[in-house]
Amino acid sequence: QDGNHFSVKRPQEINENDLTQLENRINQIETSILAGKPDFEMMDLDSFAVQILTEEVTRNFDAYKTSSFYYYLPGDDTLYAGPMWDYDGAFGEFTRLGIWWNDPAGILLEDTPEMFAADGRLTWPVYLYQNETFKKRMKEIYAQSLTELRALAEKIPQYEELIQDSVLCDQLRWPASSGLAHEGKYVKWENNVRYLRYFFGQRLNSLCEAWNISWDPISFMGNGSVHTVTFTRDGEQVAQMEVKDGTLLGWQDTESFYPQGYYLITQYGGLFTLDLPVLEDCTLDIVLNPPEN
Fold first, then answer.
1. Do the Cβ atoms of 163 and 189 come closer than 8 Å?
2. Cβ atoms within 10 Å of 44's Cβ, excluding its own
3. Against a cut of 0.70, is the pTM above it?
């Protein structure tokens, strides 16, 4: 009803009768969801809760779009959510996707169905989040998963060590200047990894606060160094400041030369926002119009 279409991935060939039955089932489920009374006999509560929770924890830009998968098991008329994939736009990854996606706070599910539909997203999750049974179960799963999520955040340096040789080869094969690689927000790959640790920890903190879940917040400590941040406008330097590693730039620090309504652009042409910690020396260009991509 929101204009989204479902496509059948498997089986690759399906007869008209089976397709009609499948369409009827999906429509029944959708009708119950949009009416505020989701039928959890026809859809699996836990798998939907896990899918939607994962999209929310990761702040996935592609959430609830064509990357969302659902399936039936043989002999089971229950619709399951998953498998989950396509997370290259998660954890505040792309500078070009807009300011909101860099902010580890906020809940996408609190948007209106109209906003979801306008953005090409399936509206089911918004209605499910408004259902007390669903929301309670999703928050329970999140609370039960926090120990593992904290452990995952703490293991990021180990994963960095495991893949660093592969990353170096990727950078040689697809340099940022080629336009074929996602450049991240920082020049050094190590600082993009540090940013991932920062964003993940702050995201967990934010959701625990929003959902009133008791939690020992994850803190992000700088490395003790000081960085030079240079601001330019129309090719001229307008300001320069020394900033401690891991610090967020605030409006009070920049308002004299960075007018509201303007944008900060990195050397790669991506957006740099005041939600991002300073992790290295950088030059930021102040422009009126954001990048198109």
1. no
2. 20
3. yes
Position 289, amino acid: N
Strands (E), the chain: 70-71, 80-81, 226-233, 236-244, 247-248, 263-265, 277-278, 282-287
Query: pLDDT tens digits, residue range 28-46?
Result: 999 999 999 999 999 999 9
Task: Please report, for residues 52, 54, 80, the alpha-carbon distance to residue 83 in angstroms, rounded to integers and kept in the order given.
Answer: 12, 11, 9
Cα gap 156→194, rounded to integer Å: 9
Q: What is the pLDDT of residues 86-103, one digit of tens each?
A: 888 889 876 554 556 788
Q: Residue 187: how many CB atoms within 10 A of its CB? A: 17
Q: Token match 């020396």: residue?
A: 281
Instruction: Tell me the one-letter amino acid at 84.
Output: M
According to DSSP, residue 79 is labeled B
User: What order do you get walking across the sheet with 236-244 strand by strand?
Assistant: 236-244, 226-233, 282-287, 263-265
Name the pairing type of β-strands 70-71 and 80-81: antiparallel
- Torsional class of 54: left (φ above 0), alpha (ψ -120 to 50), beta (otherwise): alpha
Phi-psi region of 85 (alpha: psi -120 to 50; beta: other; left: phi over 0): beta
| CA distances to 54, 102, 207, 264 from 105, in Å | 15, 9, 7, 20
